[in-house]
């Protein structure tokens, strides 16, 4: 089982998400921010990219770039991340990016505790946590035996035919090309059906599918000629209810596309 994805940040500029979708992109991991709480440390394209991907039906996730120098510091970074993603819904894990050179002055014990502290806070808040690093960091700067049994790995390993170690997501290139994005973009492969995991376990803003009492929407596949107004009239008996559909699906416009999956409030 493999799913093709990308990871993006403000450095990709303005993204045409409709073209990205047409290029068979199956998920997008979007940088949320970095470090501890500061209005200048939220990726300025985070919400725009999240809404753009959601609008065309691309499953999403986010990652937080770390500068933490202690476990307590990592907890504060997690709090900052959680504040920024409040109210959002992710089909893929919330990822902790540990790779900054400033952390090389720390010990393997300290770096490992930093990963644990961030991921633990993310899990406590009802999200599926994952950590990101390259193969060198995994083998030489972290105590991988403590992390891999507990957290999924997003492994950066470029210019090889396959990842050297088992991982949930493999970042296979930093020089990919995707329609709708100018310049290079990171290319990823996911080896788990994360959207199914999130829905079945009720994580990342989803309710458990096996508990009907928790389901407050049903899914509708957009057909050619559909409009939000017409769908609202059809299922909610009032055209004014289209605002509820927009809110539930994080749509920033009235534009919808054939084959897009929409959540319709019950």
Molecular structure report:
The protein has two domains: 3-201, Alpha-Beta Barrel (TIM Barrel); 216-265, Roll (Membrane-bound Lytic Murein Transglycosylase D, Chain A), CATH 3.10.350. The protein has nine helices and ten strands. It has helices spanning 17-22, 46-55, 71-85, 108-124, 135-140, 144-147, 194-201, 228-236, 242-248, and strands at 3-8, 27-34, 60-65, 94-97, 129-134, 152-156, 169-176, 185-190, 217-221, 261-265. The strands form two sheets. An eight-stranded mixed barrel has the order 1-2-3-4-5-6-7-8. The protein has a two-stranded antiparallel sheet with strand order 9-10. Helix 3 runs parallel beside helix 4 (108-124). Mean pLDDT is 91; it is low at 210-214.
Concise synopsis of the structure shown:
This protein has helices spanning 17-22, 46-55, 71-85, 108-124, 135-140, 144-147, 194-201, 228-236, 242-248, and strands at 3-8, 27-34, 60-65, 94-97, 129-134, 152-156, 169-176, 185-190, 217-221, 261-265. With 266 residues, the chain is α/β, with parallel strands linked by helices.
List descriptors:
alpha/beta; eight-stranded mixed β-barrel; Membrane-bound Lytic Murein Transglycosylase D, Chain A; 2 domains; globular; two-stranded antiparallel ribbon; 266 residues; TIM Barrel; 9 helices
């Amino acid at each position: 089982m493999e799913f093709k994805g990308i990871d993006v940040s403000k450095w990709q500029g303005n993204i045409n998400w409709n073209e990205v979708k047409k290029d068979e992109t199956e998920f997008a991991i979007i940088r949320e921010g970095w470090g501890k709480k500061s209005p200048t440390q939220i990726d300025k394209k985070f919400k725009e990219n999240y809404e753009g991907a959601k609008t065309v039906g691309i499953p999403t996730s986010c990652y937080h770039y770390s500068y933490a120098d202690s476990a307590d510091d990592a907890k504060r970074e997690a709090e900052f991340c959680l504040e920024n993603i409040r109210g959002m819904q992710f089909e893929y894990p919330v990822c902790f990016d540990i790779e900054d050179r400033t952390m090389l002055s720390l010990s393997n014990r300290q770096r490992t505790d930093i990963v644990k502290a961030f991921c633990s806070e993310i899990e406590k808040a009802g999200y599926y946590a994952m950590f990101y690093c390259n193969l060198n960091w995994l083998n030489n700067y972290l105590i991988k035996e403590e992390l891999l049994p507990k957290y999924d790995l997003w492994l950066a390993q470029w210019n090889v035919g396959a990842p050297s170690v088992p991982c949930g997501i493999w970042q296979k290139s930093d020089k990919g090309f995707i329609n709708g994005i100018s310049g290079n973009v990171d290319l990823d492969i996911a080896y788990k059906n994360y959207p199914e995991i999130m829905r079945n376990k009720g994580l990342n803003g989803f309710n458990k599918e096996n508990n009907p009492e928790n389901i407050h929407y049903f899914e509708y596949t957009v057909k050619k000629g559909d409009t939000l107004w017409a769908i609202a009239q059809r299922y909610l008996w009032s055209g004014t209810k289209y605002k509820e559909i927009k809110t539930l699906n994080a749509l920033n416009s009235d534009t919808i596309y054939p084959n897009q999956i929409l959540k319709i409030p019950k």
